[in-house]
Write a structure and sequence with these properties.
Length: about 950
RNA sequence: GGGCGUUUAGCUCAGUUGGUUAGAGCGCUUCCUUCACACGGAAGAGGCCACAGGUUCGAGUCCUGUAACGCCCACCA
């Protein structure tokens, strides 16, 4: 039972990762009777680079998985990759330089699969190097045959239930990707533009001014609108207007939505400039007059401008209008003021086209969907409101068909008369372009038109719960529905969370999971930037991490390399659930300090636990032991209470606090005296300390295990595995403190002890004494009940304060404080006197009052329940004083041997007069320590001593 | 314009159901080589808890309002 001096991080992490993988301790057992805990892990989009943000959010879930597993639950922690659909296509096109539209579909699909496989491996390697406890032999991919089958099954179920619609209507369209897309995929981009004021005219020549940012839509103009109450222009309503440059005529109509305050008060309506245009198109039954093609080129309606791209056409048409004098005013609109909607996958400005698409009918189901959202427990709870807001404001049905290639095919055919012929479940996954329906419903198979569109990636990722419990498959596990938990980031509540709830509601009439646990993002922290002071800005704001600006400063691989998985994991849990975290490398460094501390404290315990068997019976525990155990009990309870709400941070925080401050700084220090004692009378007390040490070390390791899986496993396997019998700490049970060991009295005594210790430490620190400097006599004054408690820890007080004698005295009087500097450079001293009349008037008198000792008491400022008097050993003080005076001299002497102050030397020679010699000889160790020498020789002959000016007859020499 | 969130030490953040004297880590100051650890320890400096009202014996915590910042949505002629 021993640990090496240093923790070999890299080796240990690799070793245990392999061990866990080989021993399958994370495998979900479908046959198990244990309570299941199932996680609907976000399948990362295979879209290129790994990001520190991935590490942040996935680690949080990972820790919850480990916690649940240690509770004894049967944990399903699957992993998947969202690799179907447009994101992969865009990535593939970027990597290969080839366009999907320019090659046979099958060929492009193969390229996409290769790209996806490459990035899947990257992700997997990263997660493994972070020690993620997913069952790696059971990973899904959304483009796999099985996922396609379940996805198509989902579509067919919606079709059967009449929840999908195939209809022609204006849709959001991307001219670059040449596909329709959903409302949730719209992004806002700030972009400046020019506001053009130009004149239409009535047939009799009256000018009609309008304002537009998109003059290239003039050929698509189908009407003009004026508010019915618009005093200035309402007389024009009903007349015809001539479109400038293009010459066709449109009707001037009235509509309340035409705001008299905006622009000129008259607005042109085109096919389609924006959502209002679409609304008018439907309401007023306007013609469809699309002036550009699906790939964003002006068409024949644009006349001489046909063939130009949309943006190019805008410039050319503006130039032409200016030339013709038709534009009478132009205004620049700054980027801050104008927002352009774009397709989030590629950044191209949104267009609207009338196309035939598949929609899931969500708008009609809004109320039900809000109710479903209320059934889910959102963590933190306000995230539920975001969901509600989104659903409440839905204006469009969910468009799920995409005119793309690398996706799940929509499993239908169309008969010549438009009848929809669905695939049969038994033939899934199906590709209508290749396959034929099993049941052609009496139509000639040769006449059937296959659907060539594919489903949007969200249509498949919205059924990750179904992919996990294998809906409709041979290994289906419907008992796992609803799943326990969905972890995800807050930005995709409107997409992923919403879509998943939609699917679950339509398919099963239920929620997909009980808890939605929402994480934040990683951002950059505010830093002082001296060079920016010129602009009056001393700080760089908190901001999103940008790949181009920050390079690989935030690369997960680099960070793991530098700090190790455990330190990164620990950092990743330092944020509050749901809120963004500022990236701070110093904090990761702080985490790795914790690892060192954990290692060293375990090493300390190991030294005393050689041959110790806790099963041999529990010794009678001391008050200090009970104090520590009582505190630990509270830590455990707090830990579980926090995890019940998936709050990994408070759980960890309380534990760390206890570990570092209560356990390391105090408990270990308090029991050293017992553990190192060679007095047989202390044997039982030492056994008590060992028992407690064993329990606390193991218990804390178990609580740290979800966060720091590698180092805790290393220590567990080194010290405890044999005695405890669990194959891995990660499948061991959490510690429980027996209720008989939880003692309020002991807790109180422990706190009082710490109060005394703090006073003594403060005294020594203020006087620049070493903590090990002995106290001759320590007098404690307090009320009787306090003293009763303190007597429980009498021996501990003596030990940790290095006091030779301890006297308890019932508090009688208030003290008067007198402060001053002692003669002979002994330091600042505070003296307390019992009453003003007998109080010494100066420090000199104090020395006179005491014979061998200097009285330098202090009392607690905090509670005033304990006062203490410290009588230092005069010899010890003198020695301390002399040694510190000699120190600079020793360092001077070392220089002759080219030694630095911190370097060790062989012999320290000290010349001293008889009285000082006596004092120094009692504890030569202090001089040895000061000089870092192997030994000290006093008053040797024939040495050249460096003389100490302040003390005649004293000097030092060094030999190396 | 609407909704949500945030505002506590120089920085990053905790602060349980309102309860004595508001905490931690990093950074800063002084000291201490002590037999687990100097990647350590001790002691300290540093806060009008954004602001203004209110409820209460008592408010960092509850209510109202204001401001700044962030996110989401809407607006886009």
């Amino acid at each position: 039972m021993n640990l090496p001096a240093n923790y070999e991080r890299a080796a240990a992490e690799a070793k245990w990762q392999k061990f866990w993988d080989d021993s399958k301790i994370y495998k979900f057992d479908p046959a198990s009777k244990a309570e299941p805990f199932t996680i609907d892990t976000p399948p990362p989009t295979v879209s290129g680079k790994l990001h520190i943000g991935h590490v942040f959010s996935y680690t949080q879930t990972e820790i919850i998985a480990r916690y649940q597993r240690q509770l004894g639950k049967n944990v399903l922690y699957p992993f998947g990759f969202d690799d179907n659909g447009l994101p992969t296509e865009i990535l593939t096109e970027k990597e290969t330089g080839k366009k999907g539209a320019e090659m046979p579909r099958e060929e492009f699909v193969q390229l996409c699969e290769a790209t996806s496989a490459k990035y899947r491996t990257q992700f997997r390697d990263l997660w493994m190097s972070l020690g993620f406890s997913c069952a790696w032999d059971n990973v899904y991919s959304t483009i796999s045959k099985s996922s396609q089958r379940i996805s198509q099954r989902s579509f067919l179920d919606l079709l059967k239930k009449d929840k999908v619609d195939y209809r022609s209507m204006p849709t959001l369209w991307c001219v670059k990707c040449q596909t329709s897309f959903a409302q949730a995929e719209v992004d806002d981009v700030n972009k400046g533009t020019i506001f053009n004021y130009l004149n239409f005219s009535t047939t009799d020549g009256t000018l009609i001014p309008i304002a537009t940012t998109r003059p290239e839509l003039l050929p698509a103009c189908v009407a003009m609108f004026i508010h019915p109450e618009n005093a200035k222009y309402k007389h024009l309503i009903g007349q015809k207007a001539v479109v400038p440059l293009f010459g066709h005529q449109v009707t001037i109509l009235a509509d309340e939505k035409a705001d008299p305050e905006k622009g000129t008060g008259i607005v042109m309506c085109c096919t389609f400039g924006d959502v209002t245009d679409i609304e008018w198109f439907r309401k007023h039954k306007l013609p469809n007059r699309l002036a550009f093609t699906r790939d964003g080129k002006m068409n024949e309606l644009a006349g001489e401008f046909a063939g130009l791209g949309i943006e190019e056409a805008r410039k050319v048409i503006i130039a032409k209008l200016l030339e013709a004098g038709l534009i009478f005013r132009q205004e620049e609109i700054s980027a801050e003021k104008r927002v352009v909607n774009t397709h989030e996958r590629c950044g191209t400005p949104v267009e609207y086209l009338d196309t035939k698409q598949w929609f899931i009918k969500v708008v009609d189901a809004k109320e039900d969907l809000i109710k479903q959202g209320e059934k889910v427990n959102w963590f933190p709870s306000y995230m539920g409101k975001r969901y509600r807001d989104w659903v409440d404001n839905l204006g469009w049905d969910w468009a799920i068909s995409r005119q793309r290639y690398f996706g799940v095919p929509i499993p239908v055919w169309y008969a010549p008369d438009g009848t929809i012929i669905p695939a049969d479940d038994s033939q899934l996954p199906v590709n209508p372009l290749v396959d034929k329906p099993l049941d052609c419903k009496g139509y000639d198979p040769a006449t059937l038109i296959p659907e060539k569109d594919v489903l949007d990636t969200w249509a498949t990722s919205s059924i990750t719960p179904e992919l996990n419990w294998r809906w409709g498959e041979k290994d289906e596990m419907p008992q796992l529905r609803p799943m326990s938990m969905r972890p995800q980031a807050h930005d995709i509540i409107r997409t992923w969370a919403f879509y998943t709830i939609v699917k679950s509601w339509f398919h099963h009439g239920d929620i997909p999971w009980k808890d939605a646990v929402i994480s934040g993002h990683v951002i950059k922290k505010e830093v002082k930037v001296e060079t920016q002071k010129v602009e009056g800005q001393a700080f760089e704001r908190k901001s999103k991490i940008s790949k181009s600006k920050d390079g690989d400063k935030f690369s997960p691989l680099r960070l793991i390399e530098e700090f190790g998985a455990d330190a990164i994991r620990y950092w990743a849990t330092s944020g509050t659930l749901g809120s963004d975290i500022a990236f701070d490398e110093d904090e990761i460094e702080g985490s790795s300090k914790l690892l060192t501390k954990l290692w060293n404290s375990a090493k300390f315990a190991a030294g005393f636990l050689q041959g110790f068997d806790p099963k041999a019976g529990r010794p009678k525990l001391e008050a200090v032991d009970l104090w520590a155990l009582t505190k630990f009990d509270a830590v455990i309870k707090n830990y579980h209470a926090a995890f019940a709400k998936h709050e990994f941070f408070p759980a960890r925080n309380g534990l760390e606090q206890f570990f570092w401050s209560d356990y390391c700084d105090n408990y270990i220090e308090l029991v050293k005296d017992r553990l190192y004692s060679t007095d047989p009378a202390d044997a039982e007390r030492a056994r008590a300390a060992k028992w407690t040490l064993y329990f606390l070390t193991l218990g804390q390791l178990k609580l740290f295990a979800p966060y720091l899986p590698h180092i805790t496993e290393e220590i567990y396997q080194g010290l405890f595995a044999e005695l405890e019998g669990d194959k891995s700490i990660h499948i061991s049970k959490f510690p429980v403190v027996e209720s008989s060991l939880v003692s309020a009295d002991a807790a109180k005594a422990g706190e009082l002890l710490l109060e005394v210790v703090t006073l003594v430490r403060g005294y020594k620190s203020r006087n620049n004494y070493s903590m090990k400097l002995a106290i001759d006599k320590l007098t404690l004054e307090a009320d009787e009940d306090v003293l009763t408690d303190l007597k429980l820890v009498e021996k501990d007080v003596l030990g940790i304060c290095k006091a030779n004698a301890l006297i308890f005295s019932v508090k009688k009087t208030e003290f008067i404080r007198i402060s001053g500097t002692m003669p002979a450079g002994i330091g600042n001293v505070t003296v307390l006197a019992e009453n003003p009349t007998t109080a010494p008037s100066s420090i000199d008198n104090v020395v006179a009052l005491t014979d061998n000792h200097i009285i330098a008491p202090a009392f607690t400022e905090k509670t005033e329940r304990i006062a203490l008097a410290i009588e230092m050993d005069k010899a010890a003080l003198l020695r301390n004083e002399v040694v510190s005076e000699l120190k600079p001299l020793i360092n001077e002497a070392k220089k002759a041997f080219n030694l630095k102050a911190k370097d060790a030397c062989k012999v320290l020679y000290v010349q001293a007069p008889v009285d000082l010699l006596k004092v120094l000889e009692t504890e030569p160790g202090q001089l040895e320590a000061a000089a870092r020498s192997e030994k000290v020789v006093f008053n040797a002959e024939g040495k050249t001593y460096l003389p100490l000016a302040s003390r005649p007859g004293m000097g030092v020499a060094v030999e190396n």
